[in-house]
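Lab manual, section 2.4: Encoding a predicted structure.

Procedure: take the sequence of the chain (276 residues), apply the prediction step described in section 2.3, and record the output as structure tokens. A sample record is shown.
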Amino acid sequence: MRRYTMAAIQLHSGADVQENLQAISRFVREAADRGAQAAALPECSAYLGLEMGTHAEAIPGGPTCQFLSQLARETGLWLHCGSFYEQNPQDPSRPYNCAVVLRPDGSLAGKYHKLHPFDVFVPGSGQMRESGQICPGDRIVTVDGGELGKWGLSICYDLRFGELYRLLALEGAQVLFVPANFTLNTGRDHWEVLLRARAIENGCYVVAPGQFGPGPEFPAFGRSMIVDPWGNVLAQAPDRPGVILAQIDLDYVDEVRQKVGTLSNRREDLYRLERV
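Recorded output:
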């Protein structure tokens, strides 16, 4: 059996980085004490505010990454750090929204830049242009987690682009991560539906740690989840910061994919997804 315990940590991060890091440390240590081998944080885990550029850092050399690396070493966990901001030398005013995965020894296993900035315009309700604040990435990223399987990386609004997750699955991902700061208004109707759909259509576990509560631009929905490849919600966070746990069973990934066949039965003679 290839099983392990995954923790998803729900936060209410703000503009005080040190306060956020202390909350992260407390919850990651709780996850380790409760038997987790891996833990995942939400989007904007270390800083959730409007001054993205001033809080961008080098990865892996910056202070946030160093703090989280030490935390991974002390707890012995694989640590998906959610996301924080990475410096962009080509456009310092628009850093990358960067997901970071650390090994239990604190070393960098992989990083991913959010591909899809949240750019929306609703007549009568205003607009949101995340692309004016962050620079979109240009790579689809999987991480080799060793005995914990292959992980596929994404961030928040990426959830609405199903082709990304299909490519991650085709590249071998068994666990898909969706760290998020999902809005309350859309989260009520779309969050669970989309997470379960991504799990079902790709035969993957989905780990979705979210922010909860009032934020600088909109309230966050929370309801962090871990979903299995059949679409069952294994764990869901209540409306407060905290830790949820679920078992990841990599043999079950293989079993579901054999039963459903959505990866093996694709009509590549008529359509295909290609990496550019």
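Check your result against the sample. The domain at 3-260 is CATH 3.60.110.10 (Nitrilase/N-carbamoyl-D-aminoacid amidohydrolase).
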